[in-house]
Amino acid sequence: MYDRLLNLASSALAKKEFKQQTSNLWVEPYQKAPSWEPCEERNVQSNPGKSVKSNGYILVSANGGLNQQRVAICNAVAVAYLLNATLVIPKFLYSNVWKDPSQFGDIYQESYFMSVLKDDISIVKELPPHMKSMDVEAIGSQITDADLVKEATSADYIKIVLPLLLRNGVVRFLGYGNRLGFDPLPSYIQRLRCKCNFHALKFVPKIQHVGSLLIKRIRKYSVPPSMLDTQLFGKFMENKEDHEEAARGSTKYLALHLRFEVDMVAYSLCEFGGGKNERKDLKSYRESHFPLLLARLKNATYISPPDLRKSGRCPLTPEEAALVLAGLGFKRGTYVYLAGSHIYGGNSRMEPFTRLYPNVITKENLLTPNELEPFRNFSSRLAALDFIACTTADVFAMTDSGSQLSSLVSGLRTYYGRDHAPTLRPNKKRLAAILTENGTIGWNSFEERVKKMIQQGQKVSIRSYGGSIYRNPRCPDCMCKHQ
């Protein structure tokens, strides 16, 4: 799609090959970033404390993949406190999309989760024996998305859910996800969400161990563990210094969450230069996977693919992602960890990217078949490895700021990263405007505009009203600001 720009990028990278790379690519560009830190005194107690008497039990069946389920867990913790209820360890619904039977204890450390939150809410592993046979749906205590609006308020829960809990002693949230808004909420509820996401959820040792192997092989040298490393790996990232390796130094790497899977591409309704065959292929995929989308489109105003692209509603292609990295000044030899599922179009679609950045690495080519075997056919456990690699990366780059993985990874890097965890968020609308000039724009101008676009997305800002505390924890309810 952008052959001329790719050639300019290739020439620019060749000229930089033997020049020293600018160090500011690997640090936060704004001095205010390290002034926000985790509040140590809140790690133990996040709210006024739990009530002695519980109003009943909350059951949660969380849908989606690993990252959607993580959000559901922390929302459920907040709701349990709000309703003065006992939370039963959440269950994960089996999805025909993700095809993963994993449950909470397969991903996260149950006992650690319960211990960290024990002073805030009561958590049990299962209902008491006399309630196990209860038909929750039959007694009217099952809550679905139809009963609660998206991002419902605390008042909605008090009005709709609490009466059922008081009457029946139990409530089940079926297909629970993003059903609790961020504002208005009491500060202690926000702090509890923060405590859950940033402190209570630790991966099980099996994931920690393989995740640590993954990162050690990328870095090629054991560096002193950071706060992020300690949170994600525990004892599995102990520093055993090798002076010979230390002299060579560790390898910095950039993790890229390239959201260009077929579902994302098809749902966007955009076109990506593949002509008639691509349009036919994506149309067929929509018909079989997104019937509700097609039904909605029948009554909607038609927006052409070029207009969708201009408005920033198209996922970035691998080619566009490579041009952004080149525009920022990342050298050709940069190690790029590629997170995510299968890229739509396979190797041919990735070719423009690997032409500029050949050192693409994945969990599949860093881990042995035996190390990966316990993770095969378990998409959430595989996703946990990508989550780890993205969170601990020297630089994290996303192509879709709306994805849950990008949101959660950004939040963890903000919370624990201090000024050493920069995140790159391309503004797709601005990038589309730049790329419309691909036939005439000079490389120096392209570089200047891309750098300005990224820097504006890296400005240090406090969480906005209604904004996700998981994505941006910079607020008094979650972090402390030091002058």
From TrEMBL:
- Gene Ontology molecular function terms on file: glycosyltransferase activity
- Which Gene Ontology CC terms are recorded? membrane
Pathway connected to this protein: Glycan metabolism
InterPro entries attached to this UniProt entry: FucosylTrfase_pln, GDP-Fuc_O-FucTrfase, GT106_glycosyltransferase
Q: Does the keyword Transferase apply?
A: yes
An example of a Pfam family matching this protein is O-FucT
Q: How does it sit in the membrane?
A: Single-pass membrane protein
Biological process, per Gene Ontology:
fucose metabolic process
Name where it's found: Membrane
Q: Which UniProt keywords apply?
A: Carbohydrate metabolism, Fucose metabolism, Glycoprotein, Glycosyltransferase, Membrane, Transferase, Transmembrane, Transmembrane helix
Q: Does the keyword field hold Lipid metabolism? A: no
Query: Which CDD domains would you find in this protein's record?
Result: O-FucT_plant
Indicate the family of this protein.
Answer: Belongs to the glycosyltransferase GT106 family.
UniProt-recorded name of the protein: O-fucosyltransferase family protein
Could you tell me which species this protein originates from? Lupinus luteus
- Lineage of this protein's species? Eukaryota, Viridiplantae, Streptophyta, Embryophyta, Tracheophyta
